[in-house]
TrEMBL record:
InterPro entries per the UniProt record, alphabetical: Acyl_CoA_acyltransferase, Bact_Acetyltransf, GNAT_dom
Origin species: Streptomyces glomeratus
Ranges for domain N-acetyltransferase: 20-167
Entry protein name: GNAT family N-acetyltransferase
Alphabetically ordered keywords of this record: Acyltransferase, Transferase
Length: 175
């Protein structure tokens, strides 16, 4: 549709839009894992416990940020950044609603996350993902992320990526 546009902006990690997107993200990745490994969807009680257990406070300032993408004004996806040390940021919760994939929103989210990581002082971005999240792995490769050795011990991670972040451009004199 013409006239449909993307916006990406920081939002509180516990806002209603962020909470709804976290639920959609976690439901999708959990169901995908259980369907692949056990041939079933996530147990509803387990889903509620796991969603509640990860409050996302690590995506709050001063050491983190949650970005919410909107398409035509409606919440469509997220990307989070958290500093793991003064020079390293970790990309978290990259998600786009299924019906909006393929329209450039994921690239916008990751690019905005990289900008925010630079603003926090990071010189590199790391992330982890799973083997079955093939779309995510393809996106990260297209955006210049290289697979690397594990940087954490996340139990569901199968692939780890890293990308150097060029310094933010200096402002023009007199601006």
């Amino acid at each position: 549709m013409s006239g449909m546009t993307w916006t990406v902006a920081p939002e509180a990690h516990d806002s209603p839009a962020a909470a709804a997107l976290w639920r959609a993200y976690y439901t999708e990745v959990s169901d995908r894992w259980y369907r692949l490994h056990e041939g079933r969807s996530t147990d509803p009680d387990e889903l509620e416990r796991e969603i509640a257990a990860d409050t996302g406070t690590y995506l709050a300032p001063p050491g983190g940020v949650l970005l919410v993408a909107r398409y035509a004004g409606e919440p469509a996806g997220t990307a989070g950044v958290r500093l793991t040390d003064p020079a390293t940021a970790e990309l978290k919760r990259v998600f786009l609603r299924g019906e909006l994939r393929g329209r450039g929103g994921a690239r916008l989210l990751v690019t905005a996350a990289e900008e925010h990581a630079r603003a926090l002082g990071a010189r590199r971005m790391v992330l982890d993902t799973r083997h079955d999240l093939v779309e995510a792995r393809a996106l990260y490769a297209r955006l210049g992320y290289a697979e690397t050795e594990p940087h954490n011990d996340e139990p569901y991670a199968d692939h780890w990526f890293c990308k150097p972040l060029a310094p933010a451009p200096e402002p023009e004199p007199g601006t």
